[in-house]
Amino acid sequence: MCLKTACLLLTYFAISASSYSVSSHRSKAALNTALKSTTQHFYGYGDPDHVKSTLQNITEEREASTPPASSHPDPVLLEKLSDIRSRLGPPLNLYDQIMSQSPAMALAAEFKRASPSKGQIALSEISCGAQASSYFTAGASIISVLTEPNHFKGSLSDMLSARSETQSLASKLNLPRPCILRKDFITSRHMILEAASHGADTVLLIVAVTPSDVLKELIEYSRELGMEPLVEIHADEELDVALKGGAKVIGVNNRNLHTFKMDMTTTTKFAERVGEDICLCSLSGMSSADDVERYRGDGVRMVLIGESLMRSRSPELAIKSLGLDPRVEREEEGRGGAYNGGLKVVKVCGVCEEEDAVNACREGANMIGVIFAESKRKCSRENAKKVVQSVRKFGERSDREDLRNGITRGIKRPLVVGVFQNEKVSVINEIVQDVGIDVVQLHGDEGEGCIPEISVPCIRVVSVPESDERSVEERGGEILEKVTERPLAYLLDTKVGGREGGTGVTFDHDIVQVVQSGGVPVIVAGGLSEGNVREVARAGCFGVDVSSGVEKEVGKKDDAKIKKFVDEAWRGGEEGMQGI
Ligand SMILES: *[C@@H]1O[C@H](CO)[C@@H](O)[C@H](O)[C@H]1NC(C)=O
């Protein structure tokens, strides 16, 4: 029986490699057969007890739903292809598109309604064409569209609308249009033809689920249709398979698609192994400007950002905060130099309920303050943990050391800030660890001496010196003199000591400017509301902080006010950067 099966399989594969459709290489049987040379890089290869991963299952499901093997391309698709090419023109070459962005990092922004690891991501009524257009205006040069229907809730018509809407917008704006990528579990020529005939410029091919001979065939077929494919790898041995197949654009998935485990060093490891002629991309996990910056240094030429953009109410701002808008020149930020990077933080403080945290993050706040000090808004540990859990759903975490070094370049994934006042360092560290806090805010007169002992970066609260005869330079200088440990930022509280400060907005920014010129980013707090935050943000502070200004009642936030506040803040920040 064994011999016969092997024989049949061998004959089958011999035929399939050269025929129009390739088929079930991914079945359990194939994983354990003699096709070592083409499938030994498969997860679970040769293991009779292997339980197929989600990736393997989805790919198999996808393969089963494509038309039965046939030696001829579907005439309907060919017709569609010729129609779309005559209407919309030829496809863009992915390699050239990425290289043309250099020295800026090319951004691929992804449209994804849902995913197996995160479930529903976007509202079902969201329009792919509109979302793709906003990615494009924000600076994305590649738009990736998930077209898998069952687990990602995507479709070919999503992709087609991305192509036609971005193309017409680009021609209106007289700009080069973005390149459209079909992201799916492509197993056959049929799916590649399908992609081309629905407006794709390129397709994703996943090495982990593609036998090496088939990969080569699919790469070649893509090129026959004028498309340079993006070839995805994760495991070490997959690079060789991709290179042997002739891949020129190689995307590294930092996530192991079988286990969903994320390892941000994956891309870096491959960067050392590929030559200059390969266009190396990084495909997952980037959620801060730090991540992007590190990859830039590694020679990565394109990053793909998906979920964090889908979750963001303003993809434009999200892209900017990642340092990825190719039209904005990146400013150098030596730690010792003046801070002039503009608004990077919108902090909603005094949050104690999960729902408020989720609303604030969804509206675009990127710091959520939870108070552990005695206060009307003091939060229990139990609630704080719930807040942390819900905030973490907005993007992957990177490690804390990165945060310390790169926060002024912008943060995308929201952080939880724990507010303490005259608390023992040991207690602070214990709570940080237990609750999962990202940043500590020191509100008391504990000074800065304790900062190096606290296990996460710190924000130091200082009060604005009384307005008196002295110049703002002198008063700002007084604050700077006390800087000993370089906290992440100073939170200038204009309300300290019961004084109402926030109304004297002009008075604030002069001091803010002085302190920031001294190299310490400033978060402005006290008396901010939707009515004045735009002006404050426009003046160039690093952050704004609000608590009572967005409350319904003490300790309970008002979603509409949060939305208004956050929108106004980011708008002001953007105007500030444009010099409005
Ligand atoms: C994949 O499907 C098989 C059944 O065909 C199932 O036993 C296995 O648990 C699935 N894998 C995952 C990760 O769900």
From TrEMBL:
GO molecular function, one term: indole-3-glycerol-phosphate synthase activity
Keyword Signal included in the entry's annotation: yes
Catalytic activity of the protein: N-(5-phospho-beta-D-ribosyl)anthranilate = 1-(2-carboxyphenylamino)-1-deoxy-D-ribulose 5-phosphate; 1-(2-carboxyphenylamino)-1-deoxy-D-ribulose 5-phosphate + H(+) = (1S,2R)-1-C-(indol-3-yl)glycerol 3-phosphate + CO2 + H2O
Pfam family, one: IGPS
One biological process term in Gene Ontology: L-tryptophan biosynthetic process
Domain Indole-3-glycerol phosphate synthase: 86-322
CDD domains per record: IGPS, PRAI
Domain N-(5'phosphoribosyl) anthranilate isomerase (PRAI) as annotated: residue spans: 346-567
Highest taxon listed in the record's lineage: Eukaryota
Signal peptide: 1-19
Name of this chain's protein: Indole-3-glycerol phosphate synthase
